[in-house]
Amino acid sequence: MDRDQLVRELRQRALDIRRRNLVLLNRAGKGHTGADLSAADILATLYFGVLRVDPRNPRAPDRDRFILSKGHASGALYTTLAFAGFFPVEELDTFMRPESRLSGHPARTKLPGVEASTGPLGHGLPIAVGCALAARLGGAASLDGTAGSGAAGNGAPWRTFVLTGDGELQEGSNWEAAMAAAHFKLDNLTVIVDRNGLQLGDRTECTLALEPLADKWRAFGWAVREVNGHDPAELLDAFDALPLEPGRPNCLIAHTHKGHGVSFIEDQPEWHHRIPTGDELAAALRELGEGVA
């Protein structure tokens, strides 16, 4: 598949994820609409264009690791994993029901493809630093005890990616982890910041200002690149360039819009928790091109 064809496919994948995700949220009556729609292009690009993962062997020792630190966007992750073949698409209709494997926050013991149980913000990046360090040491340890192919000390080939929210970066644990990652020169680690400018209740800069965010990451010893988080072509270019600088962990600040793709949801703080009604779902699907994958 050539590059242009791949980009077109990724755009379609993201559109399918958004449409099916909105149906999932409406049927469950619960979830995080804005956060899910914000991350759809990033997840589509990772799972269908970047990550070395195999849904037929989800615990393969040399797989890449992806951790959703903004665990409240579980609906988008589940939809992506289902479309990638990790479990049947029909199971999406069980989202947040009693006994469902698709709980409100991802649980790695329940569902193939989930690398870490996340939800409390600020936990994903510290876990990811541990994963990346394990690979650097030869894959001798990981969350599930599987080892990589590298001999101890020579490094295992798998990479670690973690998606954080921007409001989440107000948690101090992230900056402790960032400092450790730079100290250990973990250029096999990439954090993607979903920089949509909103968090629960208000804008990030009104709650606790993050800017100048890129300068903060650079000051902590990271290589930084800013991208349009809704453009698969830009995202692919950034992922293809990894590591951005040898010996430095990678930070991609992905500029996005919360609720992207639906005019009456986009950039509206109240849609952090709001769930589309039947009429709103129909209107949103019309904007996204009807049909549900």
Give an overview in words.
The protein is an alpha/beta fold and 293 residues long. It has a single domain (3-287), classed as Thiamin diphosphate (ThDP)-binding fold, Pyr/PP domains (Rossmann fold, 3-Layer(aba) Sandwich), CATH 3.40.50. Helices cover 37% and strands 11% of the residues. The chain has nine helices and seven strands, in the order ααβααβαβββααβαβα. It has helices at 3-28, 33-49, 74-83, 124-136, 172-183, 204-207, 213-219, 232-240, 278-287, and strands spanning 65-68, 160-165, 189-195, 198-199, 202-203, 223-228, 250-255. The strands form two sheets. The chain has a five-stranded parallel β-sheet, sandwiched between helices. A two-stranded antiparallel ribbon has the order 4-5. α1 (3-28) runs antiparallel to α2 (33-49), α1 (3-28) runs antiparallel to α9 (278-287) and α4 (124-136) runs parallel beside α5. The model has no long low-confidence stretch (mean pLDDT 94).
Which short descriptors sum up this protein?
7 strands; two-stranded antiparallel sheet; alpha/beta; 5-stranded parallel beta sheet; 293 residues; 37% helix; Rossmann fold
Q: Can you tell me the CATH topology? A: Rossmann fold
Strand content: 5-15%
Number of separate helices: 9
Which shape, going by the Cα principal axes?
globular
Unreliable stretches (pLDDT < 50, length at least 5) are none
- The CATH superfamily bears the name Thiamin diphosphate (ThDP)-binding fold, Pyr/PP domains
Oligomeric state as shown: single chain
Cα distance, first to last residue?
22 Å
Helix amount: 25-40%
